[in-house]
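Appendix B. One record, verbatim.
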Amino acid sequence: MKKLASICACLLLCLSTSVFAEEHADAALEHANAAVEHGKAGHAPVLVEHATVALEHAKKAAEVATGESKTHMEAAVKSLEESISHGKMGHADMATKPAEEAVEHIKAGNK
């Protein structure tokens, strides 16, 4: 009986971590898309705000993701960091491309 309880607990833990990854990936995607839209409009400060929130969620998703999803989420983190860096310099056009890359990685990692 104890073995069955342990197996059930492990399965629930595995399922819950994927749910957490999905929730964070969804939030990261929402904010990364907003960053892209504001970057295209030339609003570097707003791009940075959204990319920063997306970065926080992408990092949390990467922590609990596994396999190919983890690889994509880690790539999204790097792209968002680059986007934030360019956005802080006021280069909305240069910050938009890495934000777009982050969106693609988040989508691929959230399948």
